[in-house]
Amino acid sequence: MVQNMPKSGICRLVFIFIAIIVVIAGGYHSILQSDVFLLEKIVVKGNNRVPTEKIISASGMQIGVDKISSISDEEIEKRLLKGVLYIKHVDIKTEIPSTLIIDVVEREPVAIIPFYTTNRKLYGLVDVEGFILEIVDQSNIPEDMIILTGVMKEFRIPKFPLFLDDSLYSYFSKRLEEKAFQIAQNTLKKIIMSDLSSEILSINTKDANKITLKLKNDSVVWLSSDYLEDELYNFKTVFLYHKDKNEHYDYIDARFGGVVYCGRNQK
What we know:
alpha/beta, Ubiquitin-like (UB roll), Rossmann fold, 9-stranded mixed beta sheet, 3-stranded mixed beta sheet, 6 helices, 33% helix, elongated
């Protein structure tokens, strides 16, 4: 016959069990805080434009100072997305005992917005989502960038010189015409999706009813924002047809439903 264990015995077992858990947890914490888990290496992956050193610095993690146990994935991600504009996505991993891995996806500039200051002409680099990545001078413009025009508000050029720093980025952002810039962003995205970006020199969206594309072959194309996708498709069909035939038109107007008008200027 099995006898029930006295309450004092049960309490003793519970106390022992808790004590064991505390000892194990305390030992685990002590191990994590030991120099064995001191951060010795930071590996950065996926970066082509942003230097590895800049990403490590922006992460806020210090080799030989921070411990693996103190790493917060969310905090590092927040620092990088805020501190490095070219970073679009971050994945943080740790490898015990002492390695931090930062895997990034970078934004790619696809267009430029020219604007003037007192001391020089500068350019805002923009990605396909309309995200302003950087302000550069002419010597640092990447190749094959589409030029976006008609997206800046009318403003007086400041009488004081502006330099390539955070204040210039803010100055530039505040002078974008919101509606025109949104239309430019949408047009740019659809052009890239249509595999036409290699044919386009510039996009002007000052007038939503007369979006103007300047092609690299010197042709001019007119579209409207209301039916942009259909009109872009019609333009592409006509343009590629005549390109295969080695025929050139000075202008292509695709703003009239299924009808596309092509013409040559009188000389």
